[in-house]
Predict the structure.
Amino acid sequence: MWEYSDKVKDYFLHPRNVGEVENPDGEALVGSMACGDALKLTFKLDENQRIKEAKFKTFGCASAIASASALTEMIKGLTIEEAAKITNQDIANFLGGLPQEKLHCSVMGREALEKAIAHYQGLPAPVEEEKIVCECFGVSGQEIERVVRENDLKTVEEVTNYTKAGGGCGSCHEAIQEIIDRVRAEPRPAAPPRPRLTNIQKIRMIEETIDREIRPSLKQDGGDIELVDVVGNRVLVATRGACAVCRAANLTLKGFVEAKLKEHVWPELEVEEVAP
């Protein structure tokens, strides 16, 4: 039995933005009911070219419903350029994490968003030039290569979790492993050295990231977070509101809060909860 975060359960049992936007600016249909998951996403922009309305219809499991619902909440208020930067991991983090076996639901959400944006921009839907690698679930080598590269996947099982590829008859396992080996053998550009931060700079950036990237998502579910102290790379925080009594609070701190601080402030930061 899979362990779902309280936020996944909430977005499954009380999904936001179900339906279709009337006269949408962007729309997309991805997946296949024959394969067990399908998602339709529609959105409309306001006069400032920000997404003012987003809705979804989906056929799938609890994670598929929760991921699609979360995605519609995440993109509202964003410009097209901002929405285009959302990754499947951002969707999973927003939900406080997803079971490994259900990460393909967040990938489907990201795919729907990309195609809906392409529709708005008047671009043709991406053409899968490569042959289908997984016949059971209709997954191309191009999609497998992409999730391997974006999520640093190492095994066939991980690819199955993200795309369903390899989850049927298993005859494609060798081809999937060849893709993994090829991608992982590619030379990776060295990351430019990051300037060292003074403690004051680090604290200021942590506070700004909490206010801009973290607190709005927590407050949507009645929670909040307070920065208590910063000791070296240890970020000491106290949870507030619903987060203080949530059983999945530790998952949220590591999978969402810590991930955002690593991305926007410093990759070596570690978040620890302390008593208020």
User: Anything to note?
Assistant: The CA atoms of residues 132 and 138 lie 6 Å apart. The longest strand covers residues 37-45. The domain at 6-120 is CATH 3.90.1010.10 (Sufe protein. Chain: A). The chain has eleven helices and eight strands.
